[in-house]
Amino acid sequence: MTLTKEILCRQSAELSLGSLLPETMQASISSMMDQGFFSHNCLDILSNVKPTHDDVYPTFLEMLTYCDIPTFSESDAVRVLAEYYLIPIANGEVDPANGLHQLMESVIWNYGFPNDQSYSCDSHGLALLYGTYYACDDLDPIHDASDKRWEDRNDMIVIHAKAWIKKYSPVRRSIE
Questions:
Q1: Does pTM top 0.85 for this prediction?
Q2: What residues are paired with 119 via a beta bridge?
């Protein structure tokens, strides 16, 4: 697998939030070796059947530096991951409700700011999407895909995704 800067940025963000698995770091190091990266302990890492975070973390950071990928603050990492899930929603590449569910699962539910007891939706402009998710959740028991409410819900998710990207996106990639 060829690793793109986008994938490595997402992994760097996940690393900053503590959600990147050692096995994922190990696989990325292996892929980057195919693309020219090498470190003195790469072979030890690749031969390790059950790597720990401590086994792969230093080399993974070295690989990010080699690839000119930043390490993110926790706050910036939330924004990078939110963007990763919202751009496909805004571009119509994924079902809006499924994309929003992935955002909730990966970013909002898994990350809270320990110092102030708030959640990423409170501090990163994701509150409207959070509210829309639970409004959608209320529709689930009466799911009828032909129902106008489902159409409106998907439109609302796309509108909020585009608005978030325009205002908060760290990369500000263009959206359709």
A1: no
A2: 112
